[in-house]
Amino acid sequence: MRGRFITLEGGEGAGKSTQVRRLALTLAARGREVVTTREPGGSDGAEAIRDLLVSGATDRWDCVTEALLHSAARRDHLARTVWPALDRGAWVVCDRFADSTIAYQGYGHGLPVADLETLTRLTVGDFTPDLTLILDLPAEDGLTRAGGRGGGEDRYERMGLDFHRRLRQGFLDIAQRHPQRCAVIDATQSVDAVAQAIDAAVIGRLAP
Ligand code: TMP
């Protein structure tokens, strides 16, 4: 039986990677094989592309090139990691996916959303997440939290407050357009409260 594909989305500093780990524990406790992964990244090729995207000058790529790089990474990640895991019945929990391209390259950089949807269809076909959890918080709060993270992967964090406000709106618009697939989670709450809200959404919608 095919597994399930759950994605976590949101702006910088929303706590996605912590919540990916927490959700993996919940699913494992219910007897599921769980694979945790991330975008950009999650396969050797996609991790190499990630290095090109997350460090260096903010204008290192023009926005179309950037969308193509994210898409190339996504295709490799799906082919090498995600689809094989789903085929053997695993539940895959992924930190970011195609909604990030709509939010960051569309709402953030201003590329037409319809063009990005076409690019996504070319990249992934009709594959979509079974559930998308959108961790929502004000851009200022997220950037403050993310600022303490270090590690040099801060190219997007340096893109300015207006950019981050636009992409927050992008994620909320996506949630409104796809209510069956998306659940918005208030990420201003404590880590435990966010984890509980995520568990409730996953258990309520997918009954693992
Ligand atoms: P991360 O910091 O959440 O691991 O993600 C790396 C950065 O990549 C993050 O700032 C958002 C950005 N990103 C895009 O701009 N477009 C995309 O399609 C994806 C997956 C990530």
Short description:
By secondary structure, the chain is α/β, with parallel strands linked by helices.
What does this structure look like?
This protein is α/β, with parallel strands linked by helices and 208 residues long. The protein has a single domain (5-206), classed as Rossmann fold (3-Layer(aba) Sandwich), CATH 3.40.50.300. Helix content is 55%, strand content 13%. It has 8 helices and 5 strands, in the order βαβααβααβααβα. It has helices at residues 16-29, 44-54, 63-87, 98-108, 113-124, 139-147, 161-177, 191-206; strands at residues 5-10, 34-38, 91-95, 131-136, 182-186. It has a 5-stranded parallel sheet, sandwiched between helices. Helix 1 (16-29) crosses helix 8 (191-206), helix 2 (44-54) runs antiparallel to helix 3 (63-87) and helix 3 runs parallel beside helix 5. The protein is globular. The mean pLDDT is 96. The structure holds thymidine-5'-phosphate. Residues 12, 38-40, 53-54, 70, 96, 100-101, 104-105, 153, 156 line the site of thymidine-5'-phosphate (TMP).
Provide a count of the helices.
8
* DSSP strand count: 5
The CATH superfamily label reads: P-loop containing nucleotide triphosphate hydrolases
Fraction of residues in H or I helices: 55-70%
CATH class: Alpha Beta
Broad shape: globular
Number of structurally distinct domains: 1
Q: What is the CATH topology assignment? A: Rossmann fold
Strand content: 5-15%
Structural class: alpha/beta
Would you identify the regions where 5 or more consecutive residues have pLDDT less than 50?
none
Could you describe the largest sheet, including whether it forms a barrel?
5 strands, parallel
Radius of gyration, taken over Cα atoms and rounded to an integer in Å = 16 Å
